[in-house]
UniProtKB/TrEMBL annotation, chain A:
<dbReference type="GO" id="GO:0009055">
    <property type="term" value="F:electron transfer activity"/>
</dbReference>
<keyword id="KW-0472">Membrane</keyword>
<keyword id="KW-0999">Mitochondrion inner membrane</keyword>
<dbReference type="GO" id="GO:0020037">
    <property type="term" value="F:heme binding"/>
</dbReference>
<keyword id="KW-0812">Transmembrane</keyword>
<feature type="binding site" description="covalent">
    <location>
        <position position="107"/>
    </location>
    <ligand>
        <name>heme c</name>
    </ligand>
</feature>
<feature type="binding site" description="covalent">
    <location>
        <position position="226"/>
    </location>
    <ligand>
        <name>heme c</name>
    </ligand>
</feature>
<keyword id="KW-0349">Heme</keyword>
<feature type="binding site" description="covalent">
    <location>
        <position position="103"/>
    </location>
    <ligand>
        <name>heme c</name>
    </ligand>
</feature>
UniProtKB/TrEMBL annotation, chain B:
<dbReference type="InterPro" id="IPR036811">
    <property type="entry name" value="Ubol_cytC_Rdtase_hinge_dom_sf"/>
</dbReference>
<dbReference type="GO" id="GO:0006122">
    <property type="term" value="P:mitochondrial electron transport, ubiquinol to cytochrome c"/>
</dbReference>
<keyword id="KW-0496">Mitochondrion</keyword>
<dbReference type="GO" id="GO:0005743">
    <property type="term" value="C:mitochondrial inner membrane"/>
</dbReference>
<dbReference type="InterPro" id="IPR003422">
    <property type="entry name" value="Cyt_b-c1_6"/>
</dbReference>
<keyword id="KW-0813">Transport</keyword>
<dbReference type="InterPro" id="IPR023184">
    <property type="entry name" value="Ubol_cytC_Rdtase_hinge_dom"/>
</dbReference>
<protein>
    <recommendedName>
        <fullName>Complex III subunit VI</fullName>
    </recommendedName>
</protein>
<comment type="subunit">
    <text>Component of the ubiquinol-cytochrome c oxidoreductase (cytochrome b-c1 complex, complex III, CIII), a multisubunit enzyme composed of 10 subunits. The complex is composed of 3 respiratory subunits cytochrome b (MT-CYB), cytochrome c1 (CYC1-1 or CYC1-2) and Rieske protein (UCR1-1 or UCR1-2), 2 core protein subunits MPPalpha1 (or MPPalpha2) and MPPB, and 5 low-molecular weight protein subunits QCR7-1 (or QCR7-2), UCRQ-1 (or UCRQ-2), QCR9, UCRY and probably QCR6-1 (or QCR6-2).</text>
</comment>
Amino acid sequence: MVGGGVIQQLLRRKLQSQSVATPVLSWFSSKKATEDVGSAGVRAFALVGAGITGLLSFSTVASADEAEHGLECPNYPWPHDGILSSYDHASIRRGHQVYQQVCASCHSMSLISYRDLVGVAYTEEEAKAMAAEIEVVDGPNDEGEMFTRPGKLSDRLPEPYSNESAARFANGGAYPPDLSLITKARHNGQNYVFALLTGYRDPPAGISIRDGLHYNPYFPGGAIAMPKMLNDEAVEYEDGTPATEAQMGKDVVSFLSWAAEPEMEERKLMGFKWIFLLSLALLQAAYYRRLKWSVLKSRKLVLDVVN
Amino acid sequence: MSFAVYSFRLTFAMADEEVVDPKKYLEESCKPKCVKPLLEYQACVKRIQGDDSGHKHCTGQYFDYWHCIDKCVSCTKAVYETEMKKGEAGGDYIVLSLLHVVVSRDV
């Protein structure tokens, strides 16, 4: 705090040189000399004052960051987390059911086709039956007209809105994002989606959310347009599992994880196989290198001193 | 991950109507471990009670409290067990857990 010491010295000298009664008047009279000691002291004070107000305003801005980033979501031990762990396919099936009954009215999953579900969550007949329930607009017929037909395995999952504007209009300006890649599109996606879906709570004291939005601490900013969708017993599972909020959250996140990373199981198998084989190859390579270099590394140099 | 019914087997066999949400249950049981941030939050609520400016809020303390609860819930041993039971079939048990650790919960 050299500045503070300097300022004190300046002030002391100023008081000594001028009468105590009229320090202000004498400061004014000596204003002509801009490099004068007194005005330098006042300027320093002004600068320090400006700095303090700057710091204070920074602190209030910084505290707003917490809600801006959202509450950090915890990490849950997903069954498919391990190095050789597959998806829980029963959970994927239940999750698809939850998606269909709860989420599909607003969220599209336009990158997933019915045929992708075959062998993962449904048999071919089941998937065909599910696809046949929807109506799909198909290309021009011989008369040049578009027509509708029941869905096939090759069709994509149906979209609730025809375009983004329609989606926004129906949801108060907010766009329900496509969920095909959502667990990869958000930081720590799987845990984030689960925490978000099951984390609707009353807002903290002092926070009020406007009509049409809902409080969710995990959502950046805290005010999300989506209301709480997962409630106990909202869905009746085909396999009889009790549909608690947490169960539905877990199942839907398993489904969304699969949708975003359907290749995960094959990738893990491939990874395990190739890491193992390459480790063997590394051992072989190390042995071979040391074998070849042993000639040089074991040579001896003899110095013959000739007198 | 265990979010099938977290309830003791006895009660589940009897009551197939009433389901207990495991996450809520675990959050309740984690409350005693997070008393300190809860008290901080409540103190903050009291402090800003008279405020009319609308600028004061307790988001920080709220986040601290819920972060504590979340951490506790995600680390509970119960989270490492998964079971799926068919209520109607009355007795079919399918155990689906890759980390099937049968431990007693410590709360």
